[in-house]
Specification:
With 118 residues, the chain is of the alpha+beta class. The protein contains two helices and five strands, in the order αβββαββ. The longest helix has 19 residues. The N and C termini lie far apart (79 Å). InterPro entries: Chemokine_b/g/d, Chemokine_IL8-like_dom, Interleukin_8-like_sf.
Length: 118
């Protein structure tokens, strides 16, 4: 067989194999692609995570988790977002100072609850 035939057959065989999705990042990771400009009331925010453009997603964002289990994408440049983050951080500091076991941390995720322990 000539090199051309071997190359052609190899190319066809390789194209039949599916591409691995791991090369493109996790498929279940939903990135923010735009920001909301409507401020969220502080009483509905349960927690937040930070999305970095240096990782999988294209934009930097704060993703707020609401009590209704929704995710809201926002820009840290907005004043209402900075105020909400300051409020959440003060709540988190109060919870950790008191030693309450109500604080849950995960990978780049910080969620707090305001329920009182018995």
């Amino acid at each position: 067989m000539s090199h051309l035939t071997i190359t052609l057959i190899s190319s066809i065989l390789l194209s039949l194999f599916p591409h691995t999705p791991a090369a493109y990042g996790p498929l279940n990771y939903a990135c923010c692609v735009k920001y909301t400009r409507n401020p969220l009331p502080l009483r509905v925010i349960k927690g937040f995570i930070e999305q970095s453009s240096r990782e999988v997603c294209r934009i930097d964002a704060i993703i707020f988790f609401t009590k209704n289990k929704k995710k809201v994408c926002a820009s840290v440049e907005d004043q209402w977002v900075r105020a909400a983050l300051a409020h959440l951080r003060s709540k988190i500091n109060k919870l950790t100072v008191k030693g309450a076991p109500r604080l849950t941390t995960g990978q780049k995720q910080l969620i707090y609850t305001t329920t009182k322990s018995p």
